[in-house]
Amino acid sequence: MANDMSFDVVIVGAGIAGAMIAKRLTKANMHVLLLEAGPGTTRSFNDYTEHLEHFYAANSKGPESPWPPAVGAPQPDTADLRSNNGYFVQRGPNLYGSSYTRLLGGSTLHWLGVSLRMLPDDFRMRSLYGVGRDWPINYETIAPYYEQAEHEIGVSADACEQRYLGLTFSDGYDYPMRRIPPSFSDQVLGAAIDGMEVQLQDESFRLKVRSYPAARNSVPRKSYRPIGTGYLGERCEGNTSCTPICPVQAKYNAGKTLAQADPKRLTVLTQAVASKIHVNRASGEVEGVEYQRYTDPNAPSSTTHVAKARVYVLAAHAVENAKLMLASGLNGPGSQVGKTLMDHPTLYAWGLAPRPVGAYRGPQSTAGIEDLRGGAFRSRHAAFRFDVGNDGWRASTGAPDTAVSQAVMTGRLYGSVLREQLEANLSRHVRFSVAVEQLPDPANGVSIDPRYRDPMGNPRPVIDYRIDDYTLAGMGAAAGVAQHVFRQAGITDCTDPDKGSWFPTAYYQGRTFHYHGMGHFAGTHAMGEDLRGSVVDADQRAWEHKNLFLVGSGSFPTLGTSNPTLTLSALALRTADRLIETFTH
Fold first, then answer.
1. In degrees rounded to 5, what are phi and psi of residue 464?
2. Residue range 555-573: mean pLDDT, rounded
3. Residues sharing a CB contact under 8 Å with residue 227, sequence separation 6 or more, in sequence order
4. Which of 15, 466, 504, 475 is closest to 270 using CA atoms?
5. Which structural domain, as residue segments, surrounds residue 132?
6. Sign of dihedral through CA atoms 532, 534, 539, 544?
7. Rounded to the nearest 10 degrees, what angle do helices 469-489 and 184-193 cross at?
8. How many angstroms separate the Cα of 142 from the Cα of each of 136, 150, 169, 351, 564?
9. pTM of the full predicted structure?
10. Three-state SS for 490?
11. How far apart are CA 427 and CA 447, in angstroms?
């Protein structure tokens, strides 16, 4: 057992941050114990196939549908928003509409794979726009690690297409694989709107539909080979279920990185739930991580153990890291642990194109509109970005199933008339997802309450969450741009506030917004230049515990508009280098 073995580092969490740090440390001859709360049923072909079958059989195809939780490692599910009776204890005033996966591989099992860099301006929100706060590092500091993370993940994109709003690349650099080909829908929309101008706060922007960097295997550049072993890492075949599961594993998941760690120096314990951090109160150093090991994923019984090492890394998730710290009585400087929880509240807009655009084919999204991620308007309202959907109205209205049902039950159509109507309409469905920036708000956070525990006796996360006027104003601006784009492209706007009304609701200046979360948790153990308002330093080391590191998107001081996975991966690689520099000499 781990109690009887000697380790240099204990890492809690086998998601992307934990996997990248484990791989890099073992390659530097450090002995690592990796504790994962969930089962390891993603490591073999047969087990992965069982998850795929679970997805096929599920009535609801939500993010967690292929990944049922173990009793000892419960997880949030977006389906719980309808009942507000899930793993999260939601205290509002708005519902937090996101989920994550507690299995080996973490949420990279169900993510879409969007791998955007943060903008240079995102690191200086307070200095530039007078809102939010600044990071203790800048874009130039993290840029080399972005390149490393893009090669570790295997990102498909063309650098020339990603040079916008201040994004730069080192001389001669390009992504390891060529961009995923734009869909027919992307091409039709781009032909209609590329170059169109929109105004935000007296500032003019030209829009362009561009492929986004994707963690899906395409055509490798030069000598690069997609990571993976054996069955892992097939080339993207255009399947339509990137979220929540790629049938051929063309999409990156953290298990691919773990497969490349040095097996002689890495010990992985799955079904091992970290429950308490032991700290020497005199020195402030961590002395061990207590964990509960269960053998049956369907039962709460477990045995308790303590893992010991020289250094400890919490890489469990922005929520789980905070929950573990709080359960251990570690609140951080100024009780900042768990504070400033963020996400990207996201709107849907959908319409009917003037001609077929090939809806319901290929990856769920292959391109976006990124030009409104930055600008002087951010001093007054949130920035936002558009995902252009290839999956029609599935996410917004439940089509094509609901479209068939409505045509039959309401329209009384059948036979050849029904087929003609469906052929004429389904292929013209267009959908945007518009992710809106959120600032760090001390009113938003994760806490624990002894009244709420999971079946194994561990705290359930208590979520306080509100969407403030800065973000709500950004939602209003985003909805206006979506309508403008639809008009420019000749798309009939079918966005209906009464459809998708089970989504959480927010109100602003007489308007009703139905939103969902993007799964982009951030901010619960934010980094800073000193102890004021932060939990960790720029290396993600806890201010109060010199041998404890908290890694992941929980370290983000602000979130910007990019999906957080690439940035948290770059930060993890940077932290791994600091660990090697500090603890191997």
1. -105, 130
2. 98
3. 152, 154, 233, 252, 256, 257, 259, 260
4. 15
5. 2-583
6. positive
7. 90
8. 11, 12, 11, 39, 13
9. 0.97
10. coil
11. 46
